Amino acid sequence: MEQMVITYYESPLGEITIESDGNAITGLWFEGQREAEKIKADSEKNSANDSDEDLPVFEQARKWLDLYFAGENPDFRPELSTQGTLFQQEVWAILKAIPLGETTTYGDIARTIAAKRGMSRMSAQAVGQAVGSNPISLMIPCHRVLGSNGLLTGYAGGVDRKRALLEREKSGKIASPNNENTEEK
């Protein structure tokens, strides 16, 4: 198994853990997310997850995050590498296509996949599980997926962060989780 390398990024919405295989981003999580906490605990126990701030892919990720949190729409994505089932990969590809400032629903994604596969229906719950398994928050924008009727539903980074991210994307401002808007520099 390849050794993963980690770094951290301080965002207006809390610390972000970024994981790489040395060539591509393999994980991106907000503090408090189960995977971020697991990686942090593991790295405190031993040096299993080395940190290498100078990896080119980490520099690209920091640049992408700087632009994103400055209210800009980055015109690039660092190289991403996700491990998942064919269905998860299909869902994550749809997530990557959701434009900044726009949202979709689990049901819309299910209908898209059903139509592509020539099926009459697809489970929105199955889509929700695939969305929830997304290992690369923000860059694969799972926060842009809403429940039926546009309801704000779960987000591994927290519903308050999801609300803040969507508000930021609509207004170009960062909304902190406690709903205070702050202008970016």
Fraction of residues in helices?
A: 25-40%
Which oligomerization state do the chains in this entry correspond to?
Answer: single chain
Query: What fraction of the residues are assigned to beta strands by DSSP?
Result: 15-25%
Largest sheet: 4 strands, mixed
Q: What is the succession of H and E elements? A: EEEHEHHEHHEHEE
Structure explained in plain terms:
By secondary structure, the chain is an alpha/beta fold. It is 38% helix and 16% strand. It is built from six helices and eight strands; from the N terminus they run βββαβααβααβαββ. Strands 3-2-1-4 form a four-stranded mixed sheet, sandwiched between helices. It has a two-stranded parallel sheet with strand order 5-6. Helix 4 (106-117) packs across helix 5 (124-132). The N and C termini lie far apart (42 Å).
SSE order and pairing:
Layout: E1 5-11, E2 14-20, E3 25-30, H1 34-45, E4 50-51, H2 56-69, H3 86-96, E5 104-105, H4 106-117, H5 124-132, E6 145-146, H6 159-171, E7 174-175, E8 181-182
Parallel strand pairs: 1-4, 5-6
Antiparallel strand pairs: 1-2, 2-3, 7-8
Helix pairs in contact: 4-5
